[in-house]
Fold this protein.
Amino acid sequence: MLLFTAFLDSVALLMIVPLLPFHATGLGGGGAVVGLLMATVPLVQLVSAPLWGRLSDRVGRKPVLLIGMGAAVVASVLLALADSLPALFVSRVVQGVGGGTVGVLQAYVVDVTRPEARAHALGRVSAATSLGVMLGPALGALGASVGPSAPGYFAAALGACNVLLAAWLLPEAASRAGEAHGSPGRNGDVLRVLLHPREPVARLVWTYVLAMGAFQGGTAVLSLLLAERFGLTARTVGWVYLFTGAVAVVARALLLGRAVTRWGEARLWRGGVVLLSGGLALLAFAEGPWGLAVALALMPLGTAFTFPCVTALLSRHAAATERGRVLGMQHAWGGLSRALAPMGAGWAFEHLTPGAPFWLGAVLALTPLLLGAVGRDAPDGSRGFS
């Protein structure tokens, strides 16, 4: 049920996201405005994610997830009604409030999964999400052919169904018995990542932040690049996301588990950032369809190997009573990265060259390899920020 919930939530969200650049430019915005629009959700998540994580540790995962999904429904309706740039930004703020529950969903998965199987389990949830990424843009493109407001209303209807199904069928998660309990508030301190950057959790968080920034920066202006270089429109760009989503589903559902078993989480995330960097670098210079296809395949393959492995390693440093806080903290910092990277990418696209956001992202993706990030698994829940 959790996989199905993640899938429907992703479909509803991705029906809208690829169309936002076209919506914004239609209301008079440029590349910088598009970047800022994409950055609004993660910027709000910087505040909301730790709060939702802390609340889920206290009251349970299910009610917090339901609140987040409900906020997504409201955001979709507001987007459908938006007839100005300020209204468009309001819808994104509401989306950011609900989107801060991503760490709660991951904490739910960790609660019910053995430590050695967490990367694979997180990958399965990511595969369900990627399936939504694959189908959502195509459905959004079909909705756009009906009218500019149709994708927002369709996404709201789908999200409402998701809330009802989750409320009815999704059980509450209980932490696995016998796991360590840390001191309250210690692992969830967002500022500790800055104050103690050499600690294992902090280094894992920085790995996540840098790789996420590279990926999100490229994704934020991908539609604009495809429109300028390959002539794609709001009605056709969804098929590109269908392709990348298909690669992500195959990688996370079929390849990730075997790769973790063979190479381990710590080695696999390193290979993932190399693949991500290669995809971004190729995208910066791709002119023909084959080069574009290879670049668009490497990016989701790299993220499929990077993010679940980093999150699984991070969960091993979190006590059972603090997982929501720790993973919420990860997504808070990830939110900062998702906020700054699209703004920087939008500026680079508009003021440098269309390929600049992608080769800059390629360099950023490789940066974690130079920081000496954590390379060994930690005993589950035993170390915290030590």
Remarks:
- The first helix runs from residue 2 to 14.
